[in-house]
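User: Predict the structure for this protein chain, please.
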Amino acid sequence: PIVDFATLAEKSDLIIECLPAKAVPALAAEVFIRSRDHIIISSASLLIYPEILEGHKKSSSRIIVPSGALAGLDGVRSLIHSGIKSATIKSTKLPTGYNGAPYVLEQRIDLFCVTEKTLLFKGNAIEAAQGFPANVNVAATLSLAGIGPERTEVEIWADPEARGNSHEIIVVGNHSTIRAFVDNLPDPANPKTSILAAQSIVSALEKMSAPLIIL
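Assistant: Here is the predicted structure, written as structure tokens:
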């Protein structure tokens, strides 16, 4: 049945969010009031709408952010303890994958004129989330796992010859450097995201109830 956010939160023990970023604050508010655990896959919303994390401080809810379309976040989390110098993520998609992005509209970028691999944006994770809220959950998640959104550098590339959605992370620590590259097939129903992102939610659910947890 289709219900409103309040009813959903009231009748559920765990809420899995799969919404546009702009809808997440309203859902999160209802979830936190009822102290339910909340899986948030649209992690860019946590950077765009700081009131989500502010509201969470008053709740006993847990926010669980799946790895999404990335690999290597376990190593990034471990690296924090010995110090991280820099964190960079480079995301590449077909030009059409950025249709409707606020940054593309503001800069009046004609995606149909992109005939070779082109750097559309370079900035930190907060700026990337604001400009590409449907495309950079990976950048937001990396920043939350690592050195924070202001220090996490993001490059967004459009490539007309891309086979899918690819993400490369480079995290340089005091004693180790992590490089991870993931080449994902886009979700046929939504080319802005990857099938792996949905699978990461299933993995998160399995970890919550597994007798053996590998982090």
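The chain has a mean pLDDT of 95.
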